[in-house]
Amino acid sequence: MRVLVVEDEDAIASAIERGLTKQGYAVDVAHDGAEALDKATVNTYDVICLDLNLPRVDGLEVCRRLREDRFAGGIIMLTARSSIRERIEGLDYGADDYLVKPFAFSELAARIRAITRREGGLREPVIDTRGLELDPNTNRAKREGRDIHLTPKEFALVYYLARNEGRAVPQEELLEHIWDEHANPFTQTVKVHMNNLRRKLNEGFDDQLIETIRGKGYVL
Length: 220
Ligand code: CA
Known about the structure:
Blueprint: E1 2-6, H1 10-22, E2 26-30, H2 33-42, E3 47-51, H3 59-68, E4 74-79, H4 84-92, E5 97-100, H5 105-118, E6 127-129, E7 132-135, E8 140-143, E9 146-148, H6 152-163, H7 171-178, H8 189-202, E10 211-213, E11 217-219
Parallel strand pairs: 1-2, 1-3, 3-4, 4-5
Antiparallel strand pairs: 6-7, 7-8, 8-9, 10-11
Helix pairs in contact: 2-3, 6-8
The protein binds calcium ion.
């Protein structure tokens, strides 16, 4: 799950970035409205957290243009307490939700989970398939009832494959959805995490849950 945080106040931006990264999201940050629109054009985001009071292009305009360009992910506005009018306009422009500053990080995280559950049929809250149970709310994984302790990245990988069960997912697609823009596409990052994930999933079992299809990608 990839999130864009649009916020011009560095301290807030990096606090949100840190918090979401810890929970296993791939997080990019934009510091003004124009940068946000650029990044949303180049990358695929599941959710955008959008401060409304921004330099260059203000948040309401960013929201309007994102929807005009058919941005399909969720948008959460971060607004000042006083701006009821802005909130209403934002919702009219296609934002899904808003949070009034200052907010608790845990509330933002809960709103993001709620939005990603609502969006599209593929984003089931809990996936249960082939004896594998994945709960994205807690990042807990079980195989045949046995707990498997995964890092947030490993969980994100297996959850993404499970959402696309039966389809070979190319490495670039995993990199695009699960890592942020600082990931180097020429490194072994995906491979390394995939190897660890497989080792944990397969420990004590005879069959492999994830297969590699040469030239095509990984399939659950
Ligand atoms: Ca601001």
